[in-house]
Amino acid sequence: MPDFIAATSPRGHYEAEACIFWCYDARFSGAYEVFLRDRGFRLDRIDLVKGAGGAQPLAAEAGFERDAARAELAKSIKLHRTSRVILMVHMDCGAYGGSAAFGGDHGAEWDHHAAELDRAAEYVKSEFAEIRDIDRWIADFDGVTRL
């Protein structure tokens, strides 16, 4: 017989407070949780798209990864009337080759991530008129900074 864990879940649909693109690097899980609490988000009202590089696929040239990220956002908009997107990346991200790819130059890495977030935001704006707000955040080992 399969294991069963009793848990109740709300039956009604919800309107998402935001669709968040976040990396699955567990080193930053605590920062993500603090971010959600600090910004006043309810966990049961967030559509989380979690994958390597966070917002990176939305900044990429056309291809499978960008198409998949776009499809996730389109579903969030359709199913949960999402009007806000939060794009996040973090320092030392393996999807970007880690800090080593920038020769350990923290400033160069930061600037690269900021430019990636700008490209991702422009792509989202160009594809989804329904999105009213786009926030861009970079996580570092000391916290999370809004651009």
Strand content: 15-25%
- The percentage helix is 25-40%
Q: Which stretches are poorly predicted, pLDDT < 50 over at least 5 residues?
A: none
The total of helices stands at: 4
Class computed from helices, strands and strand pairing: alpha/beta
The backbone outline, from C-alpha atoms, is globular
Strand order of the largest sheet: 2-1-3-4-5
Q: Provide the succession of SSEs.
A: EHEHHEHEE
**Overall mean pLDDT score?**
95
Please report the total strand number as a whole number.
Answer: 5
- Rg computed from alpha carbons, rounded to a whole number of angstroms: 16 Å
Question: What's the multimeric state?
Answer: single chain
Description of the molecule:
With 147 residues, the chain is of the alpha/beta class. It is 37% helix and 20% strand. The protein has helices at 29-39, 56-59, 64-80, 106-127, and strands at residues 18-22, 46-50, 84-90, 133-140, 143-146. Helix 1 links the parallel strand 1 and strand 2. It starts with 17 loop residues before the first strand and ends with a strand.
Summary tags:
4 helices, five-stranded mixed β-sheet, 37% helix, 147 residues, alpha/beta
Explain the layout of strands and helices.
Layout: E1 18-22, H1 29-39, E2 46-50, H2 56-59, H3 64-80, E3 84-90, H4 106-127, E4 133-140, E5 143-146
Parallel strand pairs: 1-2, 1-3, 3-4
Antiparallel strand pairs: 4-5
